[in-house]
Design a protein that fits this description.
Blueprint: E1 12-13, E2 16-17, E3 27-32, H1 33-39, E4 44-54, E5 67-72, E6 81-85, H2 92-101, E7 107-120, E8 126-127, E9 142-152, E10 155-156, E11 170-171, H3 172-181, E12 184-188, E13 193-198, E14 206-212, E15 218-220, E16 223-231, E17 237-247, H4 251-257, E18 263-273, H5 275-283, E19 300-312
Parallel strand pairs: 3-8, 6-9, 11-14, 17-19
Antiparallel strand pairs: 1-2, 3-13, 4-5, 4-7, 5-6, 7-9, 9-10, 12-13, 14-16, 14-18, 15-16, 16-17, 18-19
């Protein structure tokens, strides 16, 4: 992976570059390097998921319309996890399935876009593979999500990946400024693990415009990772050459592949940490002067979870 696709700091406001990175962060997560390598170019994860606690009903559309499901997958995830079904009210069969399997201790097949993000992490260190007890809340301290869920049991949920009617999306300029300035550093450990120290970040569901570079797209069997330039709704350039990931079969996946050279797509996206960027940094620690790669900014990418149509440039 070329270094120029990894370095952050390309966020532009009012014609000036804006980039700030404190050296110390306050949330720690220890990941297995084998996990990073397995999922760095994958859009989704399929696993056997034990549903401990779920919302009785989806959030109201004004609060995002999601159904939150707390649970565990020791073999695949190994971290406290929350699965979220988008626009959940539109899939009564999925709601019934979740209700029937909550608290039983049985695992159910679940597929969703994997998402590692420091929004609800709490203050404890998160160690991948550490044994977990059943959760008694729908929002345990966690960094890992299957969000959005694309299939549960035999129920396909790709049709739920559309804009949320009645929800006030986050402003692109504010969201990307936050992501670009979020505290981050890393340590490569012996024993095949890496420790990440990251500041708290939020700003789910951002509305923004993308212009993709399909020549550098990474096509996987479950979707794609596509470098894009990010723009505000006013066509102001905000971030350059950052991955957008989209699950295969979603409306936005197809729409991005059909864009003409002079077109962009207005999308609804949610952020996740980029394991692809993280993997590159791990492998290049000794090649970058003074190991400064360890304190580069937060490596993130955006999950495309809906779109509002094309825009001409």
């Amino acid at each position: 992976m070329a270094p120029h696709l990894v370095v952050r700091g390309l966020l532009s406001f009012s014609g000036a570059l804006a980039f700030s990175l404190p050296a110390v962060a306050d949330i720690e997560i220890q990941l297995k390097q084998s996990f990073i390598e397995e999922y760095k170019f994958k859009v989704t994860m399929s696993c056997d998921f034990i549903i401990d606690k779920a919302h009785a009903k989806p959030n109201a559309p004004s609060k995002d319309g999601d159904l939150h499901i707390a649970g565990r997958s020791p073999e695949k995830i190994g971290l406290a996890a929350v699965a979220e079904i988008m626009n959940a009210k539109s899939s009564p069969s999925a709601l019934d399935f979740i209700k029937a399997n909550t608290g039983t201790g049985r695992s159910v097949p679940m597929t969703g876009v994997w998402r590692l993000w420091s929004e609800h992490a709490g203050n404890e260190k998160h160690v991948q593979g550490k044994p977990l007890a059943a959760f008694n809340t729908t929002n345990p301290d966690h960094l890992f999500e299957l969000h959005p869920v694309t299939k549960v049991g035999s129920i396909d949920l790709l049709s739920t990946l559309v804009p949320i009617q009645g929800y006030d999306e986050k402003l692109a300029s504010s969201a990307f400024k936050r992501f670009e300035s979020t505290k981050f550093r890393m340590e490569v450990n012996t024993g095949g693990t890496v420790s990440l120290f990251v500041g708290a970040a939020g700003y789910n569901y951002v509305k923004f415009v993308v212009r993709p570079d399909r020549s550098k797209m990474i096509l996987a069997n479950d979707g794609f990772l596509m470098p894009c330039d990010f723009y505000g709704l006013d066509k102001q350039l905000l971030v350059k050459s950052t991955y957008v990931v989209a699950p295969k079969g979603s409306v936005t996946y197809d729409a991005m592949l059909k864009l003409k050279p002079n077109q962009g797509l207005t999308i609804l996206g949610t952020p996740r940490m980029s394991l692809a960027r993280l993997s590159w940094r791990i492998k290049n620690v000794s090649k970058v002067p003074k190991s400064e790669v360890l304190t580069w900014g937060l490596p993130y990418e955006m999950i495309a979870v809906g779109n509002y149509g094309t825009i001409d440039f």
